[in-house]
Design a protein that fits this description.
25 helices, alpha/beta, Fumarate Reductase Iron-sulfur Protein, Chain B, domain 2, 4 domains
C-alpha cells in the first residue's frame, strides 16, 4: 500500500511505525473472511481492509476524523482474527491502537459516550470500587437503572445475581508449593475478575501449588491496562504497565521468577506486549521486555507440569471456547485442550471457533447490538456440541456466554483443579 506521510510526520516514531505497517497491506482481502463485523454486516468499511484505508487517511491528514469514520473504528472488536489470517504479516493490532489514540486525542464524542467511557475506565480497573458499584446496584436496582446511562446499566445487568465474597488472594502474599518445589511464579490477580469470579484465582493457586509451584502475588501490582488501552488512553495504559513491571521486577530481584502467570487471556495478551508498550521508556523499557518474556497463560504453565487426575471429577464433555485474545492475541491453541484432556475431560470443538463471542473487553457495553448478534451465533454453535460444560480462559467470555445459555460456563483452570483434588466448580451445581 502506498502512503503519503510527510517527512515531518515520519519523524514521529508512532507514525513511522504505522507507515511501515500500512505498506505491508496488499489489499488481498483474506482478512474479510474471518472478521466478525464483516461477516455480520458485509460492509467493506467494517472489515480490517476497509478500516486500514480509513486509518491511513486519518493519520495522513492529522485532522480529527468524522463521526462516520469513528463509528467504523469503534465497531472493531480487536479480536485480531485478521492477523491470524493475513498472509502479509500486517500488524493490524498496532495500527488500530494508533487509530484509537488519535481519535481519543482529536475527536469530541457526545457527552453520554464520554461519560460512559470515563466511568468504565475509572470503575472496572479498581476492584474495591467495582465491588462497591455492584453491591449498590443490587441494593438500589431501580434507582441506578434510572440514574445510569443505558449501556452502563447493562454492566449491572451482566453482574452475577449475588456478588461473590472477596478473596484474600488479591492481597500481596506468597503461597507455598507442595514439595518438591519446581517453579516460583507471580500471579496477576486481575481487576474485574477478582470481583466477578474470585474462585478462578483460588483454583489457580490450588492447582499450581499442588503441582510444585510457589505462587507470589506481588505488592503494588494492579490492572494490566488493557481496558484503557483499547479505548485509546495510551498514557493511562502505560502507567498501569509501569506499576506492574515495578512490582514484578521487585519479586525478580528478591527471589527470582520462572513465570508471570495470567489466568485471563485478555490481560495476558496485553502483558506479553509490555515490551512494545514501554519500548521508548528509558527507565522501564528493558524491564518491561523482560517481564513480557516471562509472561505465560496459566494453561501454558500447566501443560508443562504433568497433570495427573485423582479420579474425583466426572468425565464430562467440555466445549472449549478459545478466547480471541488466547488464539489470535497469544497464538495459544493446543495447551488448554491438552491439559483438559490430560485431566480426563472429553474436549469438543466449537464450529466457527475463530469468531468472537462479542465480549471483547467493554465491547458488549459500547456496541451492545453487534455484541448480541455475535453472542447468538456463538451460543448456537456451542449448543450443537451437546457438551456438559463450556470452558474458556477469559473472564469476559465467561460472563458473556453465561448470559445466553443454560450450559454451565467455567474457567479451564477450575476444571483442572477439580480433576486434581480441588472442589467441584460451583457453576456445575451439586454432584450426583
Amino acid at each position: 500500500m502506498q502512503t503519503s506521510f510527510t517527512l515531518a510526520q515520519l519523524a514521529t516514531p508512532e507514525i513511522a511505525e504505522a507507515e511501515r505497517i500500512l505498506r505491508k497491506c496488499v489489499h488481498c482481502g483474506f482478512c474479510t473472511a474471518t472478521c466478525p463485523t464483516y461477516v455480520l454486516l458485509g460492509d467493506e468499511l467494517d472489515s480490517p481492509r476497509g478500516r486500514i484505508m480509513l486509518i491511513k487517511a486519518m493519520l495522513e491528514t492529522t485532522r480529527a476524523p468524522s463521526a462516520k469514520v469513528v463509528s467504523h473504528i469503534d465497531r472493531c472488536l480487536s479480536c485480531l482474527s485478521c492477523m491470524t489470517t493475513c498472509p502479509s504479516g500486517v500488524d493490524y493490532r498496532r495500527l488500530v491502537d494508533r487509530a484509537r489514540a488519535h481519535i481519543d486525542d482529536t475527536f469530541q464524542r457526545p457527552w453520554a459516550e464520554t461519560m460512559l467511557r470515563g466511568l468504565l475506565a475509572i470503575v472496572l480497573p479498581r476492584p474495591a470500587l467495582f465491588r462497591l458499584a455492584l453491591l449498590a446496584s443490587k441494593a438500589l436496582p431501580g434507582f441506578l437503572s434510572r440514574l445510569l446511562p443505558g449501556r452502563l446499566a447493562g454492566l449491572v445487568a451482566m453482574a452475577p445475581a449475588t456478588v461473590p465474597s472477596p478473596s484474600t488472594i488479591g492481597s500481596p502474599q506468597t503461597h507455598g508449593a507442595a514439595e518438591p518445589r519446581r517453579l516460583r511464579v507471580a500471579l496477576m490477580p486481575g481487576c474485574a475478575q477478582q470481583v466477578l469470579a474470585p474462585a478462578i484465582n483460588e483454583a489457580t493457586v490450588r492447582v499450581l501449588t499442588r503441582h510444585g509451584c510457589e505462587v507470589v502475588v506481588a505488592k503494588g501490582g494492579g490492572c494490566c491496562g488493557a481496558l484503557v488501552h483499547h479505548m485509546g488512553q495510551e498514557g493511562a495504559a502505560r502507567e498501569a504497565a509501569r506499576r506492574n513491571v515495578a512490582a514484578w521486577s521487585t519479586e525478580l530481584a528478591n527471589g527470582g521468577l520462572d513465570a508471570i502467570v495470567i489466568n485471563a487471556s485478555g490481560c495476558g495478551t496485553t502483558v506479553k506486549d509490555y515490551g512494545h508498550l514501554l519500548k521508548d521508556d528509558p527507565k522501564w523499557g528493558a524491564a518491561a521486555a523482560q517481564i513480557a518474556g516471562l509472561t505465560k497463560d496459566v494453561s501454558e504453565v500447566l501443560a508443562g507440569l504433568d497433570i495427573e487426575p485423582d479420579g474425583g471429577a466426572e468425565r464430562l464433555a467440555v466445549a472449549y471456547h478459545s478466547a480471541c485474545s488466547m488464539q489470535h492475541g497469544q497464538n495459544i491453541h493446543d495447551e488448554p485442550r491438552q491439559v483438559l484432556a490430560a485431566a480426563g475431560f472429553m474436549v469438543r470443538e466449537i464450529a466457527e471457533g475463530h469468531l468472537c463471542c462479542g465480549s471483547a473487553g467493554t465491547y458488549n457495553l459500547l456496541q451492545p447490538d453487534l455484541s448480541g448478534r455475535l453472542l447468538e451465533r456463538k451460543i448456537a454453535n456451542v449448543e450443537r456440541c451437546g457438551a456438559d460444560v463450556i470452558a474458556t480462559g477469559n473472564i469476559g467470555c465467561m460472563v458473556q456466554l453465561a448470559r445466553a445459555t443454560m450450559t454451565p460456563v467455567v474457567h479451564t483452570v477450575e476444571l483442572i483443579d477439580w480433576a486434581t483434588g480441588g472442589p467441584r466448580p460451583e457453576a456445575l451445581g451439586p454432584g450426583s
